[in-house]
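ESCALATION

Customer reports they have been waiting on this structure for their group meeting. Please prioritize. Original submission:
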Amino acid sequence: MTVRKAWVVAVAAGGAGVAFVMLLVVGVYVVAGNLVNGVNGASKKLAKGAVPAAYQPLVEKWGNKCPAINPALLAAQLYQESGFDPRAQSPAQAQGIAQFIPGTWATHGIDGDGDGDRDVWDPNDAIPSAASYDCELASYVKDVPGDATKNMLAAYNAGAYAVIKYGGVPPYKETQNYVQTITTLEQSFAAPVGRVDPSEQAAGAIHYAQEKLGTLYLWGGNGTAEQGGRFDCSGLTKAAYESVGITLPRVANDQYNAGPHPSREELLPGDLVFFSDDLTNSRAIRHVGIYVGGGYMIDAPRPGAVIRFDPIDTPDYFGATRVTEDGAKALPATAGSGVNRT
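Update from on-call: job pushed to the front of the queue and completed.
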């Protein structure tokens, strides 16, 4: 028996109440067979709310500074470096939203807003500087064979000389991982230009979540024995996808970046659905559930409530993510600073 079939059989085993979910899950694979166009390439347009509204105009403008970058790629770099935190500082003294070290900033920082100074802590300077530095690196390696964007990212990580020496991305594991991480994250910040492939793990994630129906909510709950098997919203979604081998970040606003973002009309069972009081900023997401079809999700809604089916079409609906293994692996472990409030 294949793993996929085993999941569907397992969902069916729960009785009549679960049959509803089973039919929805089977639909994942029916649709999967009909999606002949596969995953679309990254768009130069940003996904809805993927970048905080205060920085979106900067990312859109400077992300088109040269052909080697685009707004989604620039957003992915900023997220990976700082989680869009303009006050971030690393132990290595990398500073600001773009995490420039002082020596690099002294050489490559620019006055992006034209106010007469170059301030590494000011996103109006740091974001333009990051884009300009990317483009400068791209110009250094422009004659190297291969993908210009990947060569630029490799130069960012390993230096332009290494890219020139090896005629492309050098054989350094750290550099190859960096290039893979940023180009994968780029897809989670780009607005899809069409349908995206469904996840084959969706059925298993739904099965896990439906087995928890009726479990009392626990703030910070991860479902451990010490916690009585209880969850909060992102603890449930994390555990559901962990049960099928995909590790998600702990907080909902980082889980949003675990893959591409289908529109409301394109939702499939297994998609994560998100809710926020600020529909312009994914960093403000406060709640997440697992879509099961028919306008409903399974979620752990709030203290005093139990894991249950809830409608998704509410005024605070933010958007959705189709979780991918590569997308989840690319997420930085410490980017998120937000917490779930429900």
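Sent to customer with the following note: The first strand starts at residue 272 and ends at 276.
Escalation resolved.
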